[in-house]
């Protein structure tokens, strides 16, 4: 569970070929970071994997099955949005439970899953609060909790920390890495922040104008950047 393969995946918006053609293998349990400058197609690629956008060409295989035509809810993935996507009028408990209620799960099972997620995320004492009564980091944990209860085969994050202040970003970076070690679930994480990429990733995918410039571990990219773009972006000495 948790492998994702892209085969010649492309995306065109009107006249703009935003993703010309991408081949990529994401293995089960990997923490993969898509990094690159603003507008290079990171969010588009993630949305194609999630099924929030249709591909213009190519194939997406999830857990060995062709998922290209599947609806987002049938792909077994969970997208984590920025914390402001929480429902302000609902308690933490109900925010986390929401996707399960929508799926028609029974109340006892929902309660059990919410309690489990709250324990993993250290939110046990905050279940009856509203989002506005939480810190930015706690809110982000609630957003992650909403994904965890669905037990996805992979988590997709799109710049989840970009609206947090610098100190909190460092904390959350560590928390998400620890969560990955604990759950061992595939995570695909989009950021334009080189430090996040270098510190969190098992595998970094460097994107530039919708193309993959290089794929490798942080150390590989640092030691042997393939070109000046990668060197400049990763901040390595080439
Ligand atoms: P990133 O997340 O790396 O900043 P995006 O994937 O959001 O980049 O965008 C890549 C390119 O695709 C940009 O030029 C953006 O303007 C364009 N784009 C994204 N979504 C749409 C859309 N729905 N319609 C038209 N153009 C889009
Ligand atoms: Mg983006």
TrEMBL record:
<dbReference type="GO" id="GO:0005524">
    <property type="term" value="F:ATP binding"/>
</dbReference>
<keyword id="KW-1003">Cell membrane</keyword>
<keyword id="KW-0813">Transport</keyword>
<protein>
    <submittedName>
        <fullName>ABC transporter ATP-binding protein</fullName>
    </submittedName>
</protein>
<feature type="domain" description="ABC transporter">
    <location>
        <begin position="4"/>
        <end position="234"/>
    </location>
</feature>
<keyword id="KW-0067">ATP-binding</keyword>
<keyword id="KW-0472">Membrane</keyword>
<comment type="similarity">
    <text>Belongs to the ABC transporter superfamily.</text>
</comment>
<keyword id="KW-0997">Cell inner membrane</keyword>
<keyword id="KW-0547">Nucleotide-binding</keyword>
């Amino acid at each position: 569970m948790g492998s994702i393969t892209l085969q010649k995946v492309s995306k065109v918006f009107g006249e703009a070929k935003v993703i010309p053609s991408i081949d990529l293998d994401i293995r089960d349990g990997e923490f993969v970071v898509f990094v690159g400058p603003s507008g290079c197609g990171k969010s588009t690629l993630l949305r194609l994997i999630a099924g929030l956008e249709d591909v213009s060409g190519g194939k997406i295989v999830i857990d060995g099955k062709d998922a290209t035509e599947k609806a987002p809810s049938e792909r077994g993935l969970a997208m984590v949005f920025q914390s402001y996507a929480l429902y302000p009028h609902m308690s933490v408990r109900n925010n986390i439970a929401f996707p399960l209620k929508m799926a028609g799960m029974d109340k006892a099972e929902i309660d059990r899953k919410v309690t489990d997620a709250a324990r993993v995320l250290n939110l046990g004492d905050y279940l009856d609060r509203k989002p506005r009564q939480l810190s930015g980091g706690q809110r982000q944990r609630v957003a992650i909790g909403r994904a965890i209860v669905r037990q996805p085969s992979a988590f997709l994050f799109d710049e989840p920390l970009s609206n947090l202040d610098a100190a909190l970003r460092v904390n959350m970076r560590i928390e998400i890495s620890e969560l990955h070690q604990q759950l061992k679930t595939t995570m695909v994480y989009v950021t334009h922040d080189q430090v996040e990429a270098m510190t969190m990733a098992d595998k970094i995918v460097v994107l530039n104008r919708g193309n993959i410039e290089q794929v490798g571990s942080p150390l590989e990219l640092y030691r042997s950047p393939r070109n000046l773009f990668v060197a400049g972006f990763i901040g390595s000495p080439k």
